[in-house]
Amino acid sequence: xxxxxxxIELIARIGQKDAAxxxxxxxxxxxxxxxxxxxxxxxxxxxxxxxxxxxxKVWLKAETFSGQSxxxxxxxxxxxxxxxxxxxxxxEDPLDEDAAAQIEDESDTQETAVAKQDKGALxxxxxxxxxxxxxxxxxxxxxxxxxxxxxxEVLDVPENTVKTRMFHARKQLSEHFxxxxxxxxxx
Amino acid sequence: MTYEDQIDExxxxxxxxxxxxxxxxxxxxxxxKVEVWLAENPxxxxxxxxxxxxxxxxxxxxxxxxxxxxxxxxxxxxxxxxGRQQAxxxxxxxxxxxxxxxxxxxxxxxxxxxxxxxxxxxxTMMNVGDRNAExxxxxxxxxxxxxxxxxxxxxxxxxIDQISALLTGLNLTLVDGPKPGGVYVIAATxxxxxxxxxxxxxxxxxxxxxxxxxE
Lengths: 187, 215
Prior knowledge:
The complex is a heterodimer of chains A (about 190) and B (about 220).
Chain A: H1 3-15, H2 19-41, H3 44-61, H4 71-89, H5 97-102, H6 108-116, H7 119-129, H8 132-143, H9 148-155, H10 159-179
Chain B: H1 13-16, H2 18-23, H3 28-40, H4 44-63, H5 70-80, H6 92-99, H7 102-105, H8 108-116, E1 147-154, H9 160-169, E2 173-179, E3 183-189, H10 192-202, E4 208-213
Antiparallel strand pairs in B: 1-3, 1-4, 2-3
């Protein structure tokens, strides 16, 4: 059975209050959802709360799943909206590009020597320096491997915005690489 | 119009689509656009390589992020309650879930592999470096083992026999992959011997080109 078909059947069973089905759905998606939420919020505790809130919403509202998108996309959409709602309550704006752009990391110089030895470590530092909106799109495309249409649905933006946001995120990533002493030849 | 909607007019749509071209999550029409653009712009090959490297590194970095805690899973299931009793219609994996403790249930698909795989799991097919390749593992005695895991990329010239012998000799199990970048998830027993085996694997420089323990 294809993964998405299996997920759809689990959602149907969750709608009948089958706890084993919820546990199975959780097992399939909790780790990637959690990691996406860490990228979005930068807060592990909030990410964990949001994962639970997402699955609780699925438990209570499974019958609202329309089947027009994949279950995975639906879960990410719920999780993102839940996280943004929680952040608004805490009066944080995770997607404030201007504020993010003003944050300068003064430890670049000290980190550079170490980072050059490990491209993974360098990438981790560069992703961490991105704005939340850019971390989010990098995660959805490079880690969650979502299509343009899937990412657009999760982010609730036009598909063209997904493409351009990803382009800007990649440019920022290269800029951070350059500041860390690695010129990638672009932009 | 916001900042995010704006783009330099010199940037082609094909260039914007490169990340999806690399991930394979792209329509046939868009794939053709990118292929035409790449053919017309030989210098764009370097850009394609950059995107590929970004995706591989981003994937590895994200795989090293933590997992939700057991307490979180317990809290969710406590909130849900017992629900309706399930008949025996579930598949093997779900019947297994029913007999597992929450300690195992929280860890997701990779951990599910860990608990169902015996140490003598048999690697039946693997193709290092091919993102579309698949592998299969089979439990010989059904023993339930939890463990620690690491992300490993093998050298392109490493053969299946060499890798299989290495993992078997160290009592390690391949449980997932290949992920982007040709990375595999390797599991060890959750004890000092497992840690030592992973350390030894990390030091096998002729066969292992990347190694990172997972939290």
